[in-house]
Amino acid sequence: RPTIVLLQGAFQLPEVYHAFVKLIEAHGFPVTQAPYPSLNQADLDFISKDLNDDAASAEACIRTLVEEEGKTVVVVMHSYGGLVGAEAVSEALTLKHRKARGLPGGVAHFFFLAAFVMDKGQSVAKTVGPSPDHDIVDGRFIMRDPLAKMYNDVARVEAQYWAARVISQSAAVMDTQMEICAWKYVPSTYVVCTKDEAVRPAVQEMFAGLAGSAVMRVVGGHSAFLSKAEEVVGLVGEVASQSF
Fold first, then answer.
1. Per-domain residue ranges for the chain?
2. Which of 16, 33, 35, 79 has the fewest CB atoms within 10 Å, counting from its CB?
3. % of the chain beyond a pLDDT of 90
4. What homologous superfamily is domain 3-241 in, according to CATH?
């Protein structure tokens, strides 16, 4: 079975995804979660880190699985993770490229969950612009109302728990321009979250169209990996099982 590489969204501790990871693993798929330097509060210089640093971390994780272990990989990307994944996978790491050369493993599929998709030369700052949902303070990118925007359909106690643990991110990620855009050569599925208050469904549909993704829909908010975990994991399993 393919290995899942999970690339998380912005502003969140990796721990918010741990129950989701365990559920995927319970369905028989090993999961690796790549860390983001732009979120590493323990690094006093983290505000200098940008999308390229996050992509390099993800690329190192994927390269190890593919080149050293010969694994077939499905990259599951939530929100900001869509940009990270698109910059992390060179064509040489794809399953198609490696199979043509008699090599084992490779990235077989992208799974976007309410994820950003942008074309070459675009950046969050250039394409989305200033947002009433965020503040930038001392190089830190901060979500104003995570309870309403990120966890709107999550059970109240759980939503409050995670909203209280939202962290700042390096604002430099907003200015990094896309270069690789691996969705141009990696087949993809896009799951639109129809109750999303952070990335509106119409915008998600636009992203899916840009990537040429097969589209699925979940009646859930931005953190559907929490509120609709079983359903989302079922879709991950369905896609991953067909990605050999």
1. 3-241
2. 35
3. 91
4. Alpha/Beta hydrolase fold, catalytic domain (3.40.50.1820)
